[in-house]
Each structure stands twice: as C-alpha cells, then as structure tokens.
Amino acid sequence: MEKRVMTLALNDREMQILEQLAERHGLTKVGVLRQALRAYQFLDERANQGQKLFIEDPLTKEKTELALMVA
C-alpha cells in the first residue's frame, strides 16, 4: 500500500493532547492519529446505518450517547 504525506498544523493544546495520548498508550503521534481515524470511521459508519453508540458508567449504569461532532 502506497503511503502519502500530508502536513498537519495543530495548536498548542491539540499538540499537548496528542503527545499525552501517545505517551500514555506507547504509540507515536502518527500512531495515535491513525487509530483516531479508524475510530472515527467506525463511528461514522455506524451513524450512517442509524445505529447509536453509548458509554456506560460501570458504577451507576448511567448511559451517555456519543454523537459525532461535524463542523
């Protein structure tokens, strides 16, 4: 599979978040971005099928629906 190069400009806060996630999960910054892209694709496909995704608090069993933020 051919790889293509792109340039990405992040503000200081976005870069800080990216660096923290990379360190926490033992990934490179590019690795975090690739996983984020796959996760977004998964959510987008499910939303397009009319499905919903929820996060459940293990203690209270309270559920919160996740929604894609589209700009």
Question: Can I get a quick summary?
Answer:
This protein is mainly alpha-helical and 71 residues long.
Quick tags:
mainly alpha, 11% strand, single chain, 2 helices, 71 residues, two-stranded antiparallel ribbon, 2 strands
Question: Helix and strand layout, with pairings?
Answer:
Elements: H1 12-25, H2 29-48, E1 53-56, E2 63-66
Antiparallel strand pairs: 1-2
Helix pairs in contact: 1-2
Task: Tally the beta strands.
Answer: 2
Secondary-structure element string: HHEE
Which spans of ≥5 residues are poorly predicted at pLDDT below 50?
none
Class per helix and strand makeup: mainly alpha
Q: Radius of gyration in whole Å, from Cα?
A: 15 Å
User: What count of helical segments does DSSP give?
Assistant: 2
Overall body shape? extended
Overall pLDDT metric: 93
What's the arrangement of strands in the largest beta sheet?
1-2
Distance between the termini: 30 Å
What portion of residues is helical? 40-55%
Strand content: 5-15%
How many structural domains in the coordinates? 1
Q: How many strands, which pairing sense, and closed or not: the largest β-sheet?
A: 2 strands, antiparallel
